[in-house]
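In response to reviewer comment 3 from the previous cycle, which asked for concrete evidence that the modeling workflow produces usable outputs, we include below a single protein chain processed end to end. The sequence was submitted unchanged, and the resulting structure tokens are shown without manual editing.
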Amino acid sequence: MYEQTRVDQSQADLIVAVDGQAVGSVDQFMTIVETRQPGDEVVVTVIRERQREDIKVVLGGE
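The workflow returned the following structure tokens.
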């Protein structure tokens, strides 16, 4: 449903927000993402190696 640009898949990132909206579960994440359109850019906030990091993501289609 979405594609990340140049994200190291070997790392375990914890998604905590999408465009500033808190994410506490997969269901919350999907609810936020499903309101967007393919090609939209969102900012996904993750915890990576104990540091908060914002990643720009362009949503893809099915």
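The beta strands are 2-4, 14-18, 21-22, 41-48, 51-59. We consider this sufficient to address the reviewer's concern, and the full set will be provided in the supplementary archive.
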